[in-house]
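Long-time lurker, first post. I've been practising inverse folding by hand and with some scripts of my own, and I keep getting stuck on stretches where the structure tokens seem ambiguous. Below is the full token string for one chain I'm working on. Before anyone asks, I'm not after the true native sequence, just a reasonable design that respects the backbone. If someone could post their per-position residues I'd love to compare against what I wrote down in my notebook.
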């Protein structure tokens, strides 16, 4: 009854553009009213559509304004101002540069259908797609069973945050970044700005808050990811036919659901011309700031759309707020991850989705990829990367001044698939032996050597061909240089071409991590020749610690 009364209040605005009067609406039968509420609305102008969402969200106007007032106050209380001249003075905190490896978590209502990808909530409304067809065949038409109807099925009844944190620590991760809200608009945290949260429905618990406590108790850093800004358009395809996206009663969950005027592929998001209201960017700012105020994350990860032109003014406000607030909450400034050209590059940390770089980047950066190949969230019958692939990718990224954020997708009940756990544990076993060559390291003057070339850029990480025993990656720490061999030689000799006599420094000792065998060596004009055991001491890759006379690694030769 309450839902119908809400529908009646806002439906006047929704149908005004279609020429349906209030009296005509009241005279309809209940079934006819439902049909009218779910009728296509794509022809309505964006301002009218946005007004419906604003009205549906008005319940939290006062709370939203209070958070925005906090943002304005904190923006004026610290070393950072809400402008790029100030923000470009940002410096990456040492803990993050030392950490190298983190865990990303995509978990939400989209794990209930477990089909296609975590974009199920959009694709189920996009006519003609496999997800659309699957949804209709499995659950019925979208005006009878919409995305909201998955929420009661999302129970997370086996979610054990302490067990998750223990697994991530065993994997060798130093930070954990769960998605606090994905594009679907359902908050996985106890938001004071929405009814559509995991704390108020579905699992009925503060998933992010519970995980934050467990992760920090395990000695790891905690971050949070927000993909809410893309929710502005994410469900817009549902307006093109009869679906529950059109029903004003659902606007607080489904958002404005505007038409996505996407930037042409290969061009910056600044070329995106989607309708974005000031009300939406203010709501995004308030919700992002709320996450900071509630959970004090060491990292805030954003997806690509924060670079949309209408968002940028509030993006500067958030950055100043978060950096200033983080200095109050802890002894280091926070980290913002951004993609593409969304933020001035000195002002935050660049993140490449499913991609790597071909050379060392002077500014610290990060790759985010998923252990699963088809989806970021859990789906049935997914395939997974091997632990060897993950280790090789981590080593290559670290040698080029980056971090690896590896994603997992738990099931809707809160369990992590066995295949995923196996990969994480094997990566952790490798790091337990070879972490000295990863954690706390910095780049050498060259990242590595060998015949294998990395496919550079986003969405190319699986295109790199297999590494060989001639492929090395270099890192440094203190007086030591580490050479990580990504294969193992068959003839009992490994040769590092970059460390021949031309390097201008004599090598004092070579140690193979994880092995008790003494490594004999000869430094010649054509490289450093190492006599190695017939078998590698472990799986995936092998790290050599190299010490020089004089106690300092030399610069690499060209």
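-- Answer (accepted) --
I ran through it position by position. Result:
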């Amino acid at each position: 009854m309450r839902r119908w009364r809400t529908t009646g209040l806002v439906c006047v605005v929704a149908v005004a553009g279609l020429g349906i009067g209030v009296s005509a609406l009241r005279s309809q039968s209940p079934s006819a009213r439902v049909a009218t509420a779910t009728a296509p609305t794509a022809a309505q102008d964006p301002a009218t559509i946005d007004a419906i969402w604003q009205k549906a969200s008005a319940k939290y106007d006062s709370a939203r304004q209070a958070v925005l007032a906090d943002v304005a106050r904190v923006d004026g209380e610290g070393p950072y101002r809400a402008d790029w001249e100030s923000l470009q003075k940002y410096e990456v905190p040492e803990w993050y540069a030392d950490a190298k490896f983190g865990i990303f978590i995509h978990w939400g209502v989209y794990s209930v259908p477990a089909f296609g990808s975590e974009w199920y909530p959009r694709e189920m409304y996009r006519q003609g797609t496999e997800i659309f067809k699957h949804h209709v065949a499995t659950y019925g038409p979208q005006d009878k069973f919409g995305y909201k109807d998955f929420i009661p099925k999302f129970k997370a009844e086996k979610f054990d945050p302490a067990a998750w944190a223990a697994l991530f620590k065993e994997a060798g991760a130093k930070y954990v970044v769960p998605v606090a809200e994905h594009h679907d608009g359902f908050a996985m945290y106890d938001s004071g700005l929405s009814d559509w949260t995991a704390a108020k429905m579905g699992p009925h618990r503060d998933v992010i808050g519970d995980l934050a406590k467990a992760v920090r108790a395990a000695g790891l850093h905690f971050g949070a990811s927000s993909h809410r800004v893309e929710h502005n358009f994410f469900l817009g395809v549902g307006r093109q036919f009869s679906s529950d996206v059109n029903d004003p009663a659902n606007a607080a969950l489904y958002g404005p659901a505007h038409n996505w005027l996407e930037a042409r592929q290969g061009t910056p998001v600044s070329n995106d011309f989607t309708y974005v209201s000031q009300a939406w960017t203010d709501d995004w700012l308030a919700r992002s700031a709320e996450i900071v105020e509630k959970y004090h994350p060491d990292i805030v990860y954003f997806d690509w759309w924060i670079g949309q032109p209408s968002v940028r003014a509030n993006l500067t406000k958030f950055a100043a707020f978060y950096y200033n607030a983080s200095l109050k909450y802890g002894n280091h400034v926070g980290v913002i991850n951004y993609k593409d050209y969304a933020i001035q590059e000195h002002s935050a940390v660049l993140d490449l989705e499913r991609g790597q770089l071909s050379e060392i980047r002077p500014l610290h950066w990060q790759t985010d990829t998923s252990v699963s190949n088809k989806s970021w969230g859990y789906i049935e019958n997914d395939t997974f990367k091997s632990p060897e692939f993950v280790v090789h990718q981590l080593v290559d990224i670290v040698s080029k001044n980056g971090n690896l954020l590896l994603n997992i997708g738990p099931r809707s009940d809160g369990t992590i698939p066995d295949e995923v756990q196996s990969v994480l544990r094997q990566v952790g076993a490798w790091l337990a032996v070879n972490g000295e060559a990863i954690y706390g390291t910095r780049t050498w003057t060259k990242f590595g050597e060998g015949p294998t070339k990395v496919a550079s850029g986003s969405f190319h990480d699986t295109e790199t061909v297999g590494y060989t025993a001639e492929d090395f990656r270099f890192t440094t720490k203190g007086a030591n240089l580490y050479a990580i061999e990504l294969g193992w030689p068959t003839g009992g000799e490994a040769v590092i071409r970059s460390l021949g006599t031309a390097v201008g420094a004599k090598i004092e000792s070579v140690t193979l991590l994880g092995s008790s065998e003494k490594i004999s060596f000869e430094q010649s004009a054509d490289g450093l020749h190492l006599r190695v055991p017939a078998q590698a001491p472990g799986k995936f890759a092998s790290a050599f610690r190299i010490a020089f006379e004089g106690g300092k690694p030399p610069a690499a030769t060209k």
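A couple of notes from the structure itself: Residues 263 and 271 are 5 Å apart (CA to CA). The chain has a mean pLDDT of 93. Happy to go over any region you disagree with.
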